[in-house]
Amino acid sequence: MAVKKNTVRGEEPESNLPLWFNEVAGIALIGVGIILTLSLITFTPHDLPILSIGGVIDNEPNIPRENSIGVVGALLSFFVLRVFGAAGYLLPIGMLWLGIAYAFMGAKFSKRTVIGLFCFVLTGACLLNVTEVLTEWAARNYIFEPGGFAGLWLGTNVLEALLNKTGAIILLVMLYMIGMIMLTGLHPIQFSKVCWANFKQWRVKRANDRERLAEKKGKRSAREAERSARQLERDNAKAETKEKAQEENERAKEVKAKKAALAKLNRAEEDKKNPQVEMELKEIPKPQIIDSSQRRNNKREPGAKPFERKKNPDAISLSTDGFENYETPGFDLLAFDESEPEDEGMDQGELLSIQKTIVDTLKAFGVEVTAGDITRGPTITRYEVYPSSGLRVSRITQLEADLARATKAERINILAPIPGKDTVGIEIANDNKVAVPLRELLQDEAFTSAKNKIPLALGKDVYGNTVIGDLAAMPHLLVAGATGAGKSVCINSIIASILFKFSPDELRFIMVDPKVVEMQIYGRLPHLVVPVVTDPNKVVAALRWVVNEMEKRYRLFAKCGVRNFDGFNDRPRPEKEEPVVVEPEVVDETAEEEPDPEAIESIARALEDGELGPIGGGDDDELDMEEEEAEMPDRFPYIVVIIDELADLMQTAPADVEQNIARIAQKARAAGIHLIIATQTPRADVVTGIIKANIPSRIAFQVSSALDSRVILDTKGADKLVGKGDMLYLPPGSAKLERAQGAFVSDEEVEAIVEHCAAQSEQVFEPSIQESIEKGGSGGGDENDVSDADEECLLKCIEVITTEQKASTSLLQRRLRLGYTRAARMMDILEERQMIGPADGAKARDVHI
Predict the structure, then answer these.
(1) Domain span at residue 441?
(2) Backbone dihedral region of 379: left (phi > 0), alpha (psi from -120 to 50 degrees) or beta?
(3) Same-domain check for residues 687 and 801
(4) Residue 433, annotated as binding a ligand
(5) Where does the FtsK domain lie (predicted)?
(6) Which 3 state secondary structure label does DSSP give 325?
(7) Is the pTM of this model over 0.85?
(8) Which CATH number belongs to the domain containing residue 753 in this structure?
């Protein structure tokens, strides 16, 4: 028999629903409310697939839909607006309210709230239709009625027809308020009463607070008078105590002075008895102002050359045909204004004023320094200061921002201390920068010095000294910097420096230009081994050829018993012997020569032991070795590989490019092969640790952050450069950075140099090299193009596929950690050697070994 639960009159009976129902219903209402809100807010009638309402037809909906919920949101919002009109926006608000109340406020499901929500939305639609508001909005959105179908049928056709407009509005406002109270549970009349009572209470409390504040002010004034009287007494007592202390200090000073005078007299008497030499204190030299930005005019003849070509008709290199009468460029190809007036931008008064500002600013922060030399360079001016004894130089570097503010400098750099000196340098950029022409550097004695094998004119330092690098000692160079900082001009000056000394039979270039536009000006140089490589896919093949050339040279070095490039070129040559004319013997063709049985037996024994190789001739490797031995060159030329943008290559084939660059950088120095790599993206994934470890010499131009500077130089500093050729140079074998202004060479000067070199001789490319690069770029190639490194990798690949009995590019990538390009090349070589089967879609290839 069922038992009915007793309920209190006026309260709703307890719900028999489970405990989890309220939370589930609340979450569902919140989710639906959010979807409906987003669809209504972003509603536009042009999102509907086909709209045919009131004779308006639109067959081209928006693609993609502007509605946040897509096609479903467009249809759902259109349906709600057609039914309830603008009052449809109240429906998601009510749903969100109920969802929050059920899920988070502990409310229970009841019929009152559902009826209240329905009455709240329906009466709102009727009110909109009766009052005729939002009519234009309804027509613009193809709703046609501001209250929708519900407002039209119930509000206009029923209530307005029975009660007229006034009566219908009164009734609908009453029902709207009732629906809102049933939905929210708020009582507006009671709420208004409580607000009015709280307002009156606040006014009374405010009046009481004002009275209490006035009383406190009166008491506070009396307390302050007493406190000031007591403070006056304490001040008088302190003043008396201070006077007594000063009198005691004066007496102590007098006693101390008498003791010091007595001790001085005693020392003087002792010195007379035992005389000795005293060392004078170190004096700071008189500060000087040095202007090193002035151009040095080294008078040379217009057609003079930094180096004279030594002709050696017997020399043999990669290709010497057409290079016998080659003449190196002269200074007349470079622009240089010899009548340039002295620089009027150097104002000694202004320099001294800035130095005084620096000293005064440091003194204001408690840092005592003494002014030193002022050196004005082409780009920056270095102000030197002598720190006082016992002062930490780190205190000066901490005031970098304050010094920049005081001197109104855009960017400053502090060297604490200056390498090799006992001063601290504060570098400030000049307002008027002075360019460093390449001709001035080429005419300097440091460039023509015999100790530099491959001299590179880099620029001038802050003291006006010429910065000349030796590529043979570096032996490789990394140039990095942001766009527009001077990296391309530096590469042009390096190439021009090399062209002024070397002929095509002494040095050859391999230029890699992924950006296509930077190196095209050098396309006519006779120094090129192959045309400028612009396809990133062919760069790996070009680097692989360089590796093979390096290994070939080392084999010939070992055969000749020399250790390096210079030893091979300077080795003693045997004197050429005149050919001996031997008279031919008269042979009787009719006589038959009997074979020697001992010779036949020795040849058979040699064939069995394998000493004479396989019958029918040797393999391809032995033929190649014989060709190398037969084509022993008299000397080798230098090979300089210039890569203009490393970041593009690292994106194409990072593993292969990094491996080949590392092998060249590790071993190619003794073979006369050198690398110059440039990049404007100094990231850690571009300039990797392996590349940095094998290229110690670096040039950094201005970069955007200290992180990029650490990637290039392993220290900060490049982020504080001022651009336009301002650079930091890390020379070989040194950890000290040199700040310099890079050499400037214009495009017109480069064109004139290239035009002169191209007019001396025609280009002679090596067909074998070019064919190898072309095949490498297209993915082709035969077994003869496989290097020793590839053979080692092939052995590992064969071991993997024989163990797994399947072959695929992804398998080699995973097991041997190869890049995709290298793994695919290994698969092609294995297929050519018929060790694996052809590709069959996505299936693994068959293994034939």
Answers:
(1) 436-569+632-760
(2) alpha
(3) no
(4) no
(5) 464-710
(6) coil
(7) no
(8) 3.40.50.300
